[in-house]
Design brief:
mainly beta; 17-stranded antiparallel sheet; globular
């Protein structure tokens, strides 16, 4: 249940979206971990402001505000016009607050859910995005940004240690600073019967000052889709690793909707490396309804012990897991709805409800 509204103010366009469907999502997926006394805290919504000609020279300004149950994100992007054969530049300011459930969250109900570990991340990023001109199959994005990351408790106070007394930052203080050079390359190829996609992401921490983080973080996502008669098989493999300086919040979290179904967010493991395989077969049941069966598996490759403070060991995460189940996919002009019924290696039943691609 939600409401959407578009308003035109001169050349600017304002999109407002208020969504109350979280009530069902929260009851099925999440464990409340923060008391909320304000009625506004029960609303999920988004606000977008777009101006196509800010100073009369086709400069574009995009402002977006997204609010979730326990998180928020503010993004301001300014773009000047450039020839199509040159990289498109965007000056970006972004601030987000989100609970760090994937690493510091505590597995619950035999690992089928994750409760709060009392650690939230306030992240401020300022920098430049460069979108390279796309070729027929390849596209790439390069960015360089200054990032200021400050862990917070559930009541909004700055913290430097978790409930067990271990540091939650790399510096050991109440915040981390870093300059990150990020490169992402994407490949896509598709025809009537199949598609394949590949995403490669590399992040390099640049030690502008001696106390700033220096690291290299690599991640890849490879997926293949194949039509088998009326059915469709989708297989994907995700992996990554990080070397150098590292804060616990930079670990690869395994478990949850976008990772390994049948487990809570991060309930399988959190390590310096990861490898996750997802397999899903969908088949039509009706014009707008599809059935699905899936099998997910993942491991931290034994790297959980190399994360500072070893949060995975302290929380009893196994480091590897297997989830299987079935579900329904409903597609309409209002969006895509997904319901999954999964069982993890501990035979704990878990029901997921997700919403994606809401129509604007």
């Amino acid at each position: 249940m939600g409401a959407q509204k578009s308003i035109h103010a001169g050349k600017a366009k304002i999109d407002v979206n208020v969504d109350l469907t979280h009530k069902l999502c929260a009851s099925l997926m999440l464990t409340p971990f923060r008391s909320t006394g304000s009625p506004l805290s029960l609303v999920i919504g988004s606000l977008y402001i777009k101006h196509p000609n800010l100073f009369g020279g086709s400069e574009k300004l995009d402002v977006s505000l997204d609010k979730g149950l326990y998180d928020s994100n503010v993004l301001i992007a300014y773009r000047r016009p450039r020839p199509e054969w040159l990289a498109q530049q965007s000056f970006v300011i972004q601030h987000s607050i989100a609970p760090e459930i994937g690493v510091h969250g505590v597995p619950m109900d035999n690992f089928s859910r994750s409760g709060s570990g009392g650690v939230n991340l306030s992240r401020l990023a300022v920098g430049l995005d460069l979108n390279e001109p796309a070729s027929t199959k390849w596209s790439s994005t390069t960015s360089i940004k200054f990032e200021h990351i400050r862990p917070l408790s559930d009541d909004g106070r700055s913290i430097s240690r978790d409930f067990d007394g271990f540091p939650v930052t790399c510096s050991g203080s109440s915040h981390d600073n870093m300059v990150v050079l990020r490169q992402e390359s994407r490949y896509a190829k598709a025809n009537d019967h199949s598609f394949c996609r590949l995403s490669l992401q590399i992040e390099q921490g640049i030690p502008v000052l001696s106390k700033w983080l220096i690291f290299n973080r690599f991640k890849f996502i490879a997926s293949k889709g194949l039509k088998l008669g009326p059915a469709f098989l989708l297989t994907s493999l995700t992996g990554g690793s990080i070397v150098g300086d590292m804060a616990p919040y930079q670990a690869f979290a395994i478990g949850g909707l976008g990772s390994l179904r049948g487990y809570g967010e991060g309930a399988v493991g959190s390590g310096r490396s990861c490898l996750v395989a997802n397999n899903e077969l969908t088949f039509p049941l009706h014009k707008m309804l599809e059935g699905a069966i899936f099998l997910d598996c993942g491991t931290d490759l034994g790297s959980g012990i190399y994360v500072p403070g070893n949060p995975a060991l302290r929380q009893g995460k196994p480091g590897c897991g297997l989830g299987l189940g079935y579900g329904l996919r409903f597609k309409s002009q209002f969006g895509h709805f997904q319901v999954d019924y999964a069982i993890n290696a501990f035979q704990q039943k878990t029901v997921y409800f997700g919403i994606s691609n809401l129509a604007s």
